[in-house]
Amino acid sequence: MDYKLLKTDLRRSNRRILKIEDYINSKSDREGFLVRKIDDIKGRGVFTTKPIEKGEFLFEYRGNLTTVDPGFNEYAFEFLWNSRKCWIDASNDDKSLGRLVNDDENDSNSIVKRIMVGGLPHLCFYAKRTISEGEEVTFTYFKGEYDQFPWRLKVSTIYFRIC
Ligand SMILES: C[S@@+](CC[C@H](N)C(=O)[O-])C[C@H]1O[C@@H](n2cnc3c(N)ncnc32)[C@H](O)[C@@H]1O
C-alpha cells in the first residue's frame, strides 16, 4: 500500500469536504461558471464553462437572511427554518452567481438544499443531473400561480396551441 498516496488522497478529499464551507465563509463562488445576458426578457443567466457531475455543489444563493417578509422582490428566496418562514434576500447585487439562476419549470438541472454553517442556514445549489459545458444552470423556482411567473404563462400558451 502506498501510504504517501493515500495521505495525499485523504488531504484532497478533506479539501473537497471543506470547500463548501470555505466558499460560504469567504462569500465567494467557485470557478467553472460565467454570467451571460440571454435577452431583454430573461435578462442574465449562469452558464457552465466545464461539465458538472450529478450531485456536485455549484454555489450558494448568497444574500441577507431575514425573517421579515421582503414583499415582492424577484431576488428573495423563501424557505422554512425551524417551522418558521425565512428569506434570503439577494436584491443587493454582490456579483454572486446564485441570484442570477433562472427558472425552468419542467427541466431544471439544479436543486437547492439548506445546509447549516456557523449555526445559520445557507441555501446551496447542487447539480440534479450531469450538466454539460455551456449549459445554463436552471432551477424550478416552485410550483406557483402563473401570474407570479409570466414567462411560464407564455410557454403554456404555446404548448396548448401545439396540442
Ligand atoms: C432571480 S432573478 C434571475 C436573474 C435575472 N435573469 C437577472 O438578469 O437578474 C429572477 C428574474 O429573472 C427572470 N426570469 C427567471 N427565469 C425566467 C424565465 N424562464 N423566463 C423569463 N424570465 C425569467 C424574471 O424576470 C425573474 O423575475
Strand residue content: 25-35%
Query: Compounds present?
Result: S-adenosylmethionine
The termini sit apart by 63 Å
Annotation, overall tally of beta strands = 10
Q: Structural class, from secondary structure content? A: alpha+beta
> What would you report as the Rg, rounded to the nearest angstrom?
18 Å
* Helix and strand pattern: HEEEEEEEEEEH
Task: Profile the largest sheet.
Answer: 3 strands, antiparallel
Q: Summarize model confidence as the mean pLDDT.
A: 84
The low-pLDDT segments are 155-163
- Considering DSSP H and I runs of 4 or more, what fraction of the residues is helical? 10-25%
Protein name: SET domain-containing protein
Pfam families: SET
InterPro entries: KMT5A, SET_dom, SET_dom_sf
Domain SET: 31-142
Explain what the structure shows.
GO terms for molecular function: histone H4K20 methyltransferase activity. The chain is α+β, with helices and mostly antiparallel strands. It has 2 helices and 10 strands, in the order H-E-E-E-E-E-E-E-E-E-E-H. The protein has helices spanning 3-25, 150-162, and strands spanning 33-39, 43-48, 57-60, 64-66, 76-81, 84-89, 102-103, 110-117, 120-127, 138-139. The strands form 4 sheets. Strands 3-9-8 form a 3-stranded antiparallel β-sheet. Strand 1 and strand 2 (43-48) form a beta hairpin. It is globular. The protein starts with a helix and ends with a helix. The site of S-adenosylmethionine has 12 residues, from strand 2 and strand 7. S-adenosylmethionine (SAM) binds at residues 41-45, 74-75, 99-100, 102-103, 151.
